[in-house]
Automatic annotation (TrEMBL):
GO terms for molecular function: hydrolase activity. This is Alpha-N-acetylglucosaminidase. Pfam families: NAGLU, NAGLU_C, NAGLU_N. Residues 129-474 form the Alpha-N-acetylglucosaminidase tim-barrel domain. It comes from Akkermansia massiliensis. Residues 483-717 form the Alpha-N-acetylglucosaminidase C-terminal domain. The keyword Transit peptide does not apply. Residues 31-114 form the Alpha-N-acetylglucosaminidase N-terminal domain. Keywords: Hydrolase.
């Protein structure tokens, strides 16, 4: 009898303990949510009784919130700290009281809150995912806690409950390498500078802009503790890093028989190639377990872990055909899962699915099924990363149909609204509002569990992110026209007719199609042609209407957006000027080349000055973040160099990918780079642009500049004073010009010339034509190749001549099926001038 009584007492106490722990967590989340709301609306901190918060149960595993305002008191009930914050933000926007962006906020909280009817929202998704591995490069690499706190607040307000948390990945990994016996030098050669760490983590590159000092790891580990604590206090479920199979080359010194595969990416030299440890090698599981042990020892227990082994990569070579390949993939999946679950049997392996749509030539139903085959269904989460690309850019079918609902594995519907943190306006607004409904209603939806977004960079295109985060809490069709009215009234406080017309024009132009790499021509390597930003007259009209809308000048978000719109407007005028300068240069019209450059210079400096008044679009801010981590002048300069490189040269070979429209970057980099190129060409010299760019990367500081006092009126004046380029300076090219050759770049001996080709220019590519423009000697062409990541993917080899006359000067090339060339390609031609070096011409891109 005593035994049974004791057992019942024990169970009773255990139950109460669980209830007590649950109550503690609810209180923790409620107070964390209260703090977010108070930071958003500081006036509420003076009257805390006017905000009542309560944690309630989820509805069938889905987050829910309820809001009601009565008697000046706002009541919010939600199923988590994040749901409470989302409820507050929904109330704020629905009642048009303000909006919070990354850059700024405009809150118009009344002294006496009017009554508002009860509202209840249940999310159709269990999880709300956020971030991309490379956001930690293009936006976040040098963030301090102050910026991270704002970001986590932004996440909570926008209903994000499953963010990537990848800070300090390296701080844990080096403990593993040291336990194995690797030397400091072997470890240092494995890593990159902080801004390039995302690509090192995915095995794309190693040994670039490093090494990382011990102070970096110590600081990042401390930062990650604060990040994880804040996320979990709000009820978020962070996704943390796991071992993906990439190891320092020095591992061969310790394990000479280790099975390593060298993996190349993007045409990088061998010294930057990563080494992938075969999952069939017992060392793979050993390292994976060591990593998880070190992680849990430092940060405690976690459930979701990310491991990506083949981001934009070829599979390791094998001689056994499809069966051997699938066996390798099956083993890899099993070993990654076993390593992740070694310290926590409830752990879940998370994998990005960018390659599912991007590399269909590799990833098909057989290869993906093999990778997943030995992982328990409930211990895997697939991020269907880029549904927007499948639907509106690649147009290659939705992954959930192609991969049959992802073979019973839970998955997250996701979009990639941005590449590289580019600032230009792009995206299919109607798709971002309603595209998720196709997944929710699909017969192939399988175990669809979440919705999210994986932007490569943030702090841009706010309207798209508001659309996506709102959509994740809605299972009905959205009227986008009505949405835009609500958006503007919440964001700016009003919706005048001119604003309405502006947004209708944006919706029909820049926000009607997705450009993967929207860049102005002046953001590309000098000599390149290929603007992918919307430059239509309707878009220009919309920009002008927006900036000239009256009565909103007191809104900080309107002032910020007016600067962005003006920068776009002037950017288009800069584009016209630089293209005209190139055409005049090709025709050796020195006078008009100089005139075009005068226009380019004027618009560039004016746009740059306005951007000095923007809260985030400034090079000085980016560099300040980087330098703040240095513990010595040398370290500060090293971090600055790394930060400069990422937003410009990147590698090379990845050039000008980030394409930021930033103050400082325009006046100190884009403008003088083009001026150097043009002046060199006018002097008949072959400019060494790589040397010029590297010198800039290794410099420090930003030149002085000041924003106008009255930004909005200055923007309006700038638009009035930026008419189209005079018709006398414009030329009409017969085709799309992507490059040129000059007397300085060719010789009478056979040599190779290379020209970059953007991914936008590869759409419907039919071939290229060599057009002779001036000189005494023709250009002889032996053949042309199209290369992606340093590999030939198309070739046309025949004898051609560009001169007077020309013959055989068209070369047929097209992008092979299944290859998307996200980072662009390059054209390589074997050429020589005939009888002398006086030969100038241009390369025309011909499309279907």
């Amino acid at each position: 009898m005593t035994f049974y009584f004791s057992k019942i007492l024990f169970l009773f106490m255990l139950t109460n303990l669980f209830v007590f722990a649950e109550d503690i967590q609810k209180n923790r989340e409620r107070e964390a949510a209260r703090s977010v709301i108070m930071r958003t609306v500081p006036s509420l901190a003076k009257a805390p009784e006017k905000l009542q918060l309560e944690i309630i149960e989820k509805e069938d595993g889905h987050d829910v919130f309820e809001t009601k305002a009565s008697g000046g008191i706002l009541n919010i009930r939600g199923s988590s700290g994040t749901a409470l914050c989302r409820g507050f933000y929904d109330f704020l926007k629905t009642n048009r009281l303000g909006m919070v962006s990354w850059d700024n906020k405009d809150i118009r909280w009344p002294a006496q809150l009017p009554d508002a009817a009860p509202r209840r929202i249940v999310s159709p998704f269990r999880n709300h995912y956020y971030l991309n591995v490379v956001t930690y490069g293009y936006t976040m690499p040098y963030w301090t806690w102050e910026r991270w706190e704002k970001e986590i607040d932004w996440m909570a307000l926008h209903g994000i409950d499953m963010p990537l948390a990848l800070v300090a990945t390296e701080g844990i990994a080096i403990r593993v390498w040291k336990r194995l016996g690797l030397t400091e030098k072997e470890i240092e050669e494995f890593y990159t500078g902080p801004a390039h760490l995302p690509w090192q983590r995915m095995g794309n590159i190693v040994n670039h802009d490093g090494p990382l000092p011990a102070s970096w790891h110590k600081e990042q580990i401390a930062l990650q503790h604060r990040i994880l604590h804040r996320m979990k206090s709000l009820g978020m479920t962070p996704i943390c890093p796991a071992f993906s199979g990439f190891v320092p080359r020095g591992i061969l010194r310790l394990y000479p028989e280790a099975k390593l595969h060298r993996l190349g990416w993007g045409g990088w030299p061998q010294k930057n190639h990563a080494h992938f440890l075969s999952p069939e090698d017992p060392l793979f599981l050993k390292i994976g377990r060591l990593y998880m042990q070190e992680w849990q020892k430092e940060f405690g227990r976690n459930t979701y872990f990310l491991a990506d082994s083949f981001n934009e990569m070829e599979l390791p070579e094998n001689k056994g055909g499809a069966e051997a390949r699938n066996n390798m993939l099956s083993s890899l999946g099993e070993q990654i899962y076993r390593s992740i679950s070694s310290t926590n049997p409830d752990a879940v392996w998370v994998m990005q699915g960018w390659m599912f749509g991007y590399q269909r030539n590799i990833w098909n139903a057989d290869t993906l099924k093999a990778l997943l085959s030995k992982v328990p269904d409930d211990k895997m989460l697939l991020l269907d990363l880029a549904a927007d690309y499948n639907k509106t850019f690649w147009r290659n079918g939705m992954n959930w149909d192609v991969f049959k609902g992802f073979f019973n594995k839970p998955w997250v519907y996701s979009v990639v609204p941005n590449m590289g943190g580019k600032c230009a306006m792009t995206g299919v607004m109607d798709f971002y509002a309603n595209g998720h409904l196709e997944a929710l209603n699909s017969s192939s939806r399988g175990h669809l569990s979440g919705m999210g977004m994986a932007p490569e960079g943030i702090e841009n295109n706010d309207v798209i992110y508001e659309l996506v985060t709102d959509a994740a809490w809605r299972d009905r069709q959205e009227d986008v026209e009505q949405y835009l009215e609500n958006y503007c009234r919440a964001r700016y406080g009003n919706y005048p007719d001119s604003m309405k017309e502006a947004w209708n024009l944006f919706r029909r132009t820049a926000y009607s199609n997705l450009k993967d790499h929207p860049r102005f021509n002046w953001q590309m390597k000098p000599g390149t042609r290929g603007c992918s930003v919307n430059t239509s007259e309707d878009f220009l009209k919309g920009l002008s209407l927006f900036v000239n809308t009256r009565g909103l000048e007191q809104s900080p978000l309107f002032r910020q957006d007016a600067v962005e719109m003006t920068a776009h407007y002037l950017g288009i005028r800069m584009n016209e000027a630089i293209l005209a300068a190139l055409e005049a240069l090709d025709e050796q019209d020195m006078e008009n080349t100089e005139k075009c450059m005068e226009y380019f210079r004027k618009y560039a400096l004016r746009a740059d000055s306005f951007l000095e008044g923007h809260p985030t679009w400034r090079l000085s801010r980016w560099l300040s973040f980087a330098r703040s981590h240095g513990t010595s002048p040398e370290e500060k300069n090293k971090y600055e160099q790394n930060a400069r490189r990422l937003v410009t040269r990147w590698g090379p070979p990845v050039d000008d990918y980030a394409a930021k429209i930033w103050s400082g970057l325009i006046r100190d980099y884009y403008l003088p780079r083009w001026e150097h190129f043009i002046q060199s060409r006018l002097s008949e010299k072959n400019p060494d642009m790589g040397a010029w760019e590297e010198k800039w990367v290794r410099s420090t500081g930003v030149s002085a500049a000041h924003a106008p006092g009255d930004l909005v009126n200055a923007c309006r004046q700038a638009i009035r004073e930026a008419p189209p380029l005079p018709s006398s300076l414009k030329r009409k090219a017969a085709g799309s010009i992507i490059g040129n050759w000059t007397s300085a770049t060719v010789s009478t001996e056979w040599s190779y010339l290379d020209w970059p080709v953007s991914s936008a220019d590869l759409e419907k590519l039919r071939g290229v034509r060599f057009v002779f423009t001036s000189g005494s000697h023709a250009l002889e062409i032996d053949g042309v190749e199209l290369l992606e990541n340093g590999k030939i993917i198309a070739r046309d080899q025949h004898a051609g001549l560009a001169g007077k006359p020309s013959r055989g000067n068209f070369y047929k090339l097209s992008l092979p099926k299944g290859i998307h060339a996200n980072n662009g390609c390059s054209l390589r031609a074997r050429v020589r001038s005939v009888g002398g070096k006086s030969s100038n011409g241009k390369l025309e891109l011909i499309k279907e």
